[in-house]
Amino acid sequence: MLDYDKEADAYDVTRGGEPRAAAAADAVLRLVPADAGRLLDLACGTGIVTRRLAAARPATRVTGADLTYGMARMAAARLPGAVLLADGRRLPFPDSTFDAVTTVWLLHLLDEPEDVRAAVAECARVLRPGGVYVTTVDKAAAHDVGSDIDAVLAPRPRRPARDAAPLVETYAAAHRLCPAGQARFPGHGQGRSPRRTTADLRRGWFTVLPPGDPVTERFVARIQALPDQDRPRADPEFTLRAFRKPTAG
Q1: Furthest CA-CA distance within the chain
Q2: Which pLDDT belongs to residue 39?
Q3: What is the CATH number of the domain that holds 114?
Q4: pLDDT for res 203
């Protein structure tokens, strides 16, 4: 996993910047009720999406929370007084605090199924009755756009997707969260090029193989043989799922 404290300063520019943030925020807002009074953006990262949520809904009190200091520091500069450090598995809020909770690009980062279950449970706990939880699902699958790079990487060993939509639905249902819609948005600027894929493979991305493993290097050799080494392939398209907390019963 990335060291997000070290990556914070360069994170936005390497992840599609403002165009991707705008697309993500617009999609989230399609699923958040217009009358939401309080919104928690958990794992807010640098706050590049959180700031847009707040700007689009001036009547909504938006709070950002992140586990890493480097990310939270940048988010706090974008939303002064509205960002705190917090572990999504143990949120420092009372029950039924928020009308909406969002986790954009969080669940896939958690190492164990227990961590994903705990994060979803906490999001459900801090939601008010009638509130909506919005989260990305199937992030790794979104990057498989049918390119020549994907064809090379297809047989690689990989870990199970912690944010697979059926799993997230199951965890949500365990806390009485009911499906309430979905949306999709493009990951502007995140299409893979062969050269960047080579660098990422050697960092241990896309696979459970450690950097330097001979099998990794065989994948690298095949990626390096592809044409147009610096041309990004198609951007991914990410999926959001929304779940509503019952109002009574």
Answers
A1: 60
A2: 98
A3: 3.40.50.150
A4: 86
Q: Which domain, by its residues, includes 9? A: 4-143+160-190+235-244
Q: Give the pTM.
A: 0.92
Picking from 25, 243, 222, the residue whose alpha carbon sits closest to that of residue 131 is 243
* Euclidean distance between CA atoms 64 and 3, whole angstroms: 19
Length of the chain counted residue by residue: 249
Q: Would you place residue 8 in the very low, low, confident or very high pLDDT band (cuts 50, 70, 90)? A: very low
Single-letter amino acid, residue 181:
G
Alpha-carbon gap, residue 84 to 188, rounded angstroms: 28
Number of structural domains, the chain?
A: 1
Nearest in space to 33 (alpha carbons), one of 51, 60, 52: 60
Residue with tokens 């199970």, as numbered in its chain: 160
Tens of pLDDT along 52-91? 999 999 999 999 999 999 889 999 999 999 999 999 999 9
